[in-house]
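Example for tutorial group B:
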């Protein structure tokens, strides 16, 4: 796994497919509840799911 990754917390996948994000996400990535969007990636090499803060592209309506 990438050495730049920092472990924050462990959570159970809920029945409705939700995963609670640790509060540390707010301060570490500058996320805002109800506003920040994440891009979701899957790394088959590491069997890992990676969330990245979505960067708005000029002209994008999101």
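The residue assignment follows.
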């Amino acid at each position: 796994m990438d050495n730049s990754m920092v472990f924050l917390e462990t959570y159970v996948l809920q029945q409705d497919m939700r995963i609670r994000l640790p509060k540390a996400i707010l301060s570490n990535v500058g996320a805002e509840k109800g506003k920040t969007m994440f891009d979701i990636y899957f790394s088959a090499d590491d069997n890992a799911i990676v969330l990245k803060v979505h960067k708005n592209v000029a002209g994008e309506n999101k």
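The first strand starts at residue 38 and ends at 43. Compare this with the pattern of hydrophobic and polar residues in the output above.
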